[in-house]
Amino acid sequence: MELKKIQEILLSDTVINKIVNTKKWSYHGTDIISLFEDIDNVYAYSNSKERYKVVRKYIEIKCVSIFNNLKAEQKDFFYRSLYLCSEINLNNLLGPYWSSNENTSPCISKEYGKEYLLKIDFNENIIDWKETLLSRIDYIHGDREMEYHLKSDLCKENVSNLEINLL
Predict the structure, then answer these.
(1) Is 58 within 8 Å of 35 (Cβ atoms)?
(2) Tens digit of pLDDT for each residue in 120-140?
(3) Three-state SS for 121?
(4) Number of Cα atoms under 13 Å in the Cβ half of residue 2
(5) What pTM, to 2 d.p., does this model score?
C-alpha cells in the first residue's frame, strides 16, 4: 500500500473526528489518553479542538511509520493465536485479528483450554485495509501487534494452506 493511500484513509476528517469523539483509536483499540499523558498535555485531551490537532499530528507522523512497517514485514503468512476450550470449529477460528508476526499472542489470558497458533498464506485480497490501518495507529498496541484486520466475511474457502498447531 502506498503512503499516499494510507494518508488519504487515516488523515480524513471522518477518521480523525471519530477518534476525537470516541476517544479510542478504533472500535477495538485503546483509549487515546495515553498519548496525551506521554506528551504531558492532558489539557488538550479535555479540549476537543486541541484534541483534534494533537491526534492529527500524531497520525501524520504515524502514517510514515505504518508505511515503512508494511514494506518491511514478511508477506508470506498471517498468524493468529488463540485459546480454545472446546473442539476446533474452523468457522469460529478465522476471525478478523491476524498478524504478520509469528510470535503473536492471544489477546486474552489463558485460564482454561489450549493455545493454538493458526497460520494461513498471506493474501492482500482478504485484508480489510481501513480497519488494519486503524489498528496500527493505536498508540499502545499498534506497532507491537503488527495486526492485519481481515475481512468480516472470511471463511475457510477464502484462505489457503490453513495450519492449526497446538502450542
Answers:
(1) yes
(2) 999 999 999 999 999 999 999
(3) strand
(4) 3
(5) 0.89
